[in-house]
Amino acid sequence: MATEVPQSSGQRRRGRPAKLSPEQVEVLVGLVRENPLLSLDDLVWSFREQTGITVSTPTVRKCLTEAGFERSRPRRGTRRTAASPPGESDGAGAPTPPKVYGYGDAHRDPGDDVRYPCGLTDSEWEQVRELFDPPGRPGRPPRYPRRQVLDACLYVLRSGCAWRMLPKDFPPWDAVYRTFRRWLAKGLFEQMYDELRRLWRSRQRRNPEPSAAILDSQSVKTSPQGGPKGYDAGKKVKGRKRHLVTDTLGLLVAVLVTVASIQDRDAALPTVNLALQKVPGIKKLYVDGGYAGRATADLRTHHAIQVEVVRHPGNRNVGRWHQGQIPLWDDAPAGFVVLPKRWIIERTNAWNDRPRRMNKDHDRNLAVSTGWIWLAEGRRLLRRVVLEAAQDAA
Q1: Which end of the chain is less congested by CB atoms within 10 angstroms, N or C?
Q2: What is the pTM (predicted TM-score) of this model?
Q3: Is the Cβ–Cβ distance between 257 and 370 less than 8 Å?
Q4: For 215-234, what is each residue's pLDDT tens digit?
Q5: Bridging pattern class, strands 284-287 and 212-221
């Protein structure tokens, strides 16, 4: 019986060559170190954007495992370490100054003898006069001053009253409502906000048009007035959803109002389409975990923009990448955490709840609900622009 002769080391058959070179593996490791909360699909996309090479998720997982990375998921029921109470020492000997919340004197407008606190000042009206009352306007002169009509709309927005409950010192409510609907059909509230947004960004030494945006939704209840409505099973809210796209300063770029039963991932593409029609230079979009998966893939495929999913540090669906020994203790915080970029649009959602007309959706028409958002944000930004200009002049 013949004896098999062992092959020499130079004649041994080698395995399949590695799919990624050491330099490409370093690029992949750098992506993980930069953001340990990335999912495998996010890593595949980011790696393709940097190198132009498309790899599969098993290949990414294998390369990271060989590099010493493992994915750990936080345990349930973990809690953060409590911070030092205000006024106590933070460990370095200096007392922690207490945080001040709420409105100050600079945020409150007492009004005057002829103007309600929500009405426009002379400087604010001059800022938007050419839009609502352009000089040389053809046709019959308006019966009621346009400034009074706009102040009446702002009164309804701030107080939350019905149109018929307008005070008698304003023009008749039906004339105000007709003018409000005409302005809404022309998109004047949105135009006003877009002009103010470009002006404010220029004063903040930013480009007039943003290149990065944030996407989020807010579920609000509806009143018994009727109109389209749905049920958001996640938030346990019966009403509508406000899908917003803002820049990194929290300024609105696009608004889409739908029934609450529409999922975030289904409304992501239409909302971003509205934003890109207005600002085509958006290159990066920040979203939360509700848009991960198909919605993120659709945005990347249709618009070729970079989508970054900002996840909670204690997220258990994706976990966190660790290189080397996984820590025995769980240092991932639980509960409320201020997430980068995410807090900006959450602050905008909180701003939208300030006017009493906005804490519920009282309108039957979705276009009217959208117009209230533009008017509420435009009023706030107008006051900010005028105050900034007055401080610069002083």
Answers
A1: N
A2: 0.80
A3: yes
A4: 999 999 999 888 999 999 98
A5: parallel
